Amino acid sequence: DLLVAKRFFNCGNGVGEVTAAENKLALISEITRLKSTAWLLQQFKDLASVKNVDISQISAASLFCETNFRTSKASGLGASATDSAVWLVEPRRTKSVEKYSSTLFHPPRDDQIGITLSAFAHYVYSSDNQKLVLADIQGSLVNIGGIDTVVLFDIMHHTSEQDSGVGDFGPEGIQMFATQHKCSYMCVGLGFDIINGQIEEEEDE
Ligand SMILES: [Zn+2]
C-alpha cells in the first residue's frame, strides 16, 4: 500500500493534449533519471561502507514500469489508442515530503538525512566529472523492514548536455550546485575534494 502509479499529463502540449507517445517519452526520461540515481546511490553507499562513514538510510523509489498493451480506462486515452500507456510506480505521498534541494537551490543542512543527501549530491557531482548534478532532491520517510528509510522520488538532473528531460538547466544548473554546495564532515570523511569550504560542525545530535 506504499505505492501509487503515476503518469504524465502535462509535458509540453498542455493538460489533456498529451499523447501516449509523449507520455511515454517523459516517463522514460524520468525512469532513466531514477535508475541512474539508484545506481549512483548504491555506489555512494558502498563508498560510505568502505570508508566506515555512518550515513542515513536512503533508497530510490522502486520502479515498476508497466506497459499496457490494452489501454486501460484510467489512462484516458480511449479504446482506439494504439500506443501503450507507460506508468511509473513510486511511494504514495500520504507521508509528508521533505525537500532537501530545489531546482537551482542547494541549501546546507544540519540534520543527518540532509547531510547524507548533500554528501550524495557531492558524490554524484564528483563521480561524473562535474557533468551531472542532482536537483529537486525530495523524499518521504518510509518504514521498510523496521528501518526508517528516506525514499527519494522525482529527482531532477542537470546535465552538461542538458538532455535528461524536464527541469534540466544544463551547465547553468551544474554551476548553481558548484557555487552553493557546502561540504560537511561527511564529505570530508568520504574523501571528497572540498568545494566552497566546509560547514562548521557542532558535536550534538
Ligand atoms: Zn561536499
UniProtKB/TrEMBL annotation:
Residues 1-195 form the Alpha-type protein kinase domain. This is Kinase-like domain-containing protein. Keywords: ATP-binding, Kinase, Nucleotide-binding, Serine/threonine-protein kinase, Transferase. The keyword Transmembrane helix does not apply. PANTHER family: EUKARYOTIC ELONGATION FACTOR 2 KINASE-RELATED (PTHR45992). It comes from Lentinula detonsa. InterPro entries: a-kinase_dom, Alpha-type_PK, Kinase-like_dom_sf. Pfam families: Alpha_kinase (PF02816). PROSITE patterns: ALPHA_KINASE (PS51158).
